[in-house]
Automatic annotation (TrEMBL):
Source organism superkingdom: Bacteria
EC number: 1.3.99.16
EC class (word): oxidoreductase
Keyword Lipid biosynthesis among record annotations: no
InterPro entries in alphabetical order: 2Fe-2S-bd, 2Fe-2S-bd_dom_sf, 2Fe-2S_ferredoxin-like_sf, 2Fe-2S_ferredoxin-type, 2Fe2S_fd_BS, Beta-grasp_dom_sf, Diverse_Oxidoreductases
Protein name per Swiss-Prot or TrEMBL: Isoquinoline 1-oxidoreductase subunit alpha
Family matches, as PROSITE patterns: 2FE2S_FER_1, 2FE2S_FER_2
Entry keyword set: 2Fe-2S, Iron, Iron-sulfur, Metal-binding, Oxidoreductase
GO MF assignments: 2 iron, 2 sulfur cluster binding; isoquinoline 1-oxidoreductase activity; metal ion binding
Pfam families: Fer2, Fer2_2
Organism: Pseudoruegeria aquimaris
Record flagged with keyword Iron: yes
Domain 2Fe-2S ferredoxin-type: from-to ranges: 1-77
Length: 154
């Protein structure tokens, strides 16, 4: 089945079977590998992308449901002012340990800051719940989000 989708500002036509997770189209068909496979059941957040500006788990978002939507991946975050602030904060605070989950963490953090430019620690924890980090850098992630909020405010 042919699907037309807009990914990172570019329109693509892809062939995919109905029920194919968006994650595999992004990684295998479009060769953008920043979005990671973690669990396959939308529990870890490693596969988070933005669908019309909202964070979604691409492992459980099906290709037939995204036609006509704007999809944004981690590869586009340098072009997004909030994404740029989050990435700057991540680098300043050395948030990353192994890095595997970080594209999903960043995509979720951008979604949070888009909704709430100055979240409290509790609001960050609540919003980011469900984004698993095997290295347990949750305190650094929280600090990174708070620092990104400061960068955006400046």
């Amino acid at each position: 089945m042919a699907i037309t989708l807009k990914l990172n500002g570019t329109t693509h036509e892809v062939e995919a079977d109905p029920g194919t997770p968006l994650l595999w189209v992004i990684r295998d068909e479009l060769k953008l590998t920043g979005t990671k496979f973690g669990c396959g059941v939308a529990s870890c957040g490693a596969c988070t992308v933005h669908l019309d500006g909202e964070p979604v788990r691409s492992c459980q978002t099906y290709i037939e449901d995204v036609e006509g939507s704007e999809i944004t991946t981690i590869e586009q975050m340098e072009e997004d002012p909030i994404g740029k602030a989050v990435q700057q904060a991540w680098a300043e605070l050395d948030v990353v340990q192994c890095g595997y989950c970080q594209s999903g963490q960043i995509m979720s953090a951008v979604g949070l800051l888009r909704e709430n430019a100055k979240p409290s620690a509790a609001e960050i924890d609540e919003y980011m719940y469900g984004n698993a980090c095997r290295c347990a850098t949750y305190q650094r992630i929280r600090a990174g989000i708070q620092r990104a909020a400061e960068i955006m405010e400046a």
